[in-house]
Input
Amino acid sequence: MGEDLHPFGQVKDFAPYVAKIKASGADTLVTGNWGQDMTLLIKAITEAGLKIPIYAYYAGVSGTPTALAAAGDIEVYQIAYNHSNYPGEIGAMATEFKKKYNDDFYTFSIYNGVVLLAEAIKKAKSSDPIKVASAMEGLSFKGFNGESQMRKSDHQMQQGLYISKWQKVDAKNTYSVENTGYTFAPVKYVDAYVASTPTSCQMKRP
Output
């Protein structure tokens, strides 16, 4: 696989890191890389022949699925608030988005954002930003990925997470990500109360 030019580096720039991972004897790789950096990392891993499971938070960001498909035999799991094969209303929305824009709708958080905003405006009985922000504190609602809540202490969304596996589409998981013939199939759902972690944030309010 040849080098790809990139304003922030090339595949060879990731090779030393991959070599260290390989030399360490690590049995799993967890990465927060995303976008072009993730794409370059995947290409460097493929070129090095490193065959270990990869857990990534942003494997579904545009461009990365195409790189994963090109890598062939690669074991990747995504930890995210969404996966590629929702049924019902959300699945239909994603399908219609792809038909209209020929792109994958992977920023499902937009849905929760709109629902949260609408519920807060209704609760505040106002569209005043300060009142709406205050109404959001501790507000629970039904999100696309289960029961969700805007945590009062720091305004961080508490929501369920999915572990999904990169695999070829099959009869159960039919959505082809970036038209690759592959998809992120859900393996496990983690409830919001399990995924939530403590915070020491002391958020200042107006």
